[in-house]
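Batch manifest, entry 17 of 40.
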Amino acid sequence: MSEQDIITLARGGDQAAFTTLVRTYQTAIYNLCYRMLGEADQARDAAQETFLRAYTQLHRYDPERPFKTWLFSIASHYCIDRLRRRRVIWMDIDDEPLAGHPALRERRAGPEDAVLRREQAADVQALLETLPPKDRIAVVMLYWHDLSYQEIAEATGTTVSAVKSRLHRARAAMADSLRTRDARREAPGQAPRTTLAHPTALLSASA
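Output type: structure tokens
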């Protein structure tokens, strides 16, 4: 049975079919919510709310649109609303064409010590949390979920040009944060500390 067959059944009220969809996408949705919110409990709540909203809005789903993109759209809008309710003031720069910039990439597991890998993951999450929500969701969708620019645009209700601008801005901001962090760690008088992730390890060239 294809995914579209399962979706058709779910839209017809088949709860078992919808449960199948939840099992298929629950990990991806939870991971997206965690990258956005930074807290496991809030990510679980957000994932549950995403599927609840999806279930109640199935009649609005367009079968011509990828179901994953539709779910990501629901999750991203909910997470952005949650971040706004935290009353954090974000600077939202107008979208405009920008030149290319090295891209964020999550480094694959290597022979590093497990503790350092955990600290590196924490570093990446901390960097994500410095970004405005709309920039953050674009980064998460691209680098953790492999969505295309077009899919991100559809999920976030914007344009491909805007997505590219947000990604450029986010990568530049994160690269600057990495350089500032490393400069502080290497400042005179600071206690020696093993470098967890040099900017070139997290930021690599992108086509």
